[in-house]
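Bug #77: duplicate submission created two jobs. Keeping one. Sequence:
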Amino acid sequence: MTKEVMTIREMCDAFNVTPRTLRFYEAKELLFPIREGQKRLFTKRDRARLILILRGKKFGFSLEEIRQLLNLYSEEDGGEAQMRNTLKAYHVKLAEMEAQKQALTDLMTELEDEIGFVERQIEGLKRDG
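Kept job's structure:
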């Protein structure tokens, strides 16, 4: 992907997204393609932003959270503020996921106990009946 600009079709093929997705992100002001009539041309910056958007969505960030992180980018600091804030957000998200994981593990243990109880009840009915 060394091209200066890519068409919407090329973007869809390269990132496995739909044209509707790209138009949605454009409407939400997350991507800013060059417009030539009806044609959209996506720059290297758009491609970098799309990578971050897709990564953020995969990790469970809202579009607003992603927008806030994207908007922190500054060439003046080489993106350091954006990276530092992204790192903080990643740590928070990881802690949330760990809590969800523990809650799910606890729930699964409770369900396993309940399965055992019901199985014992059924066995008791077989012996008594």
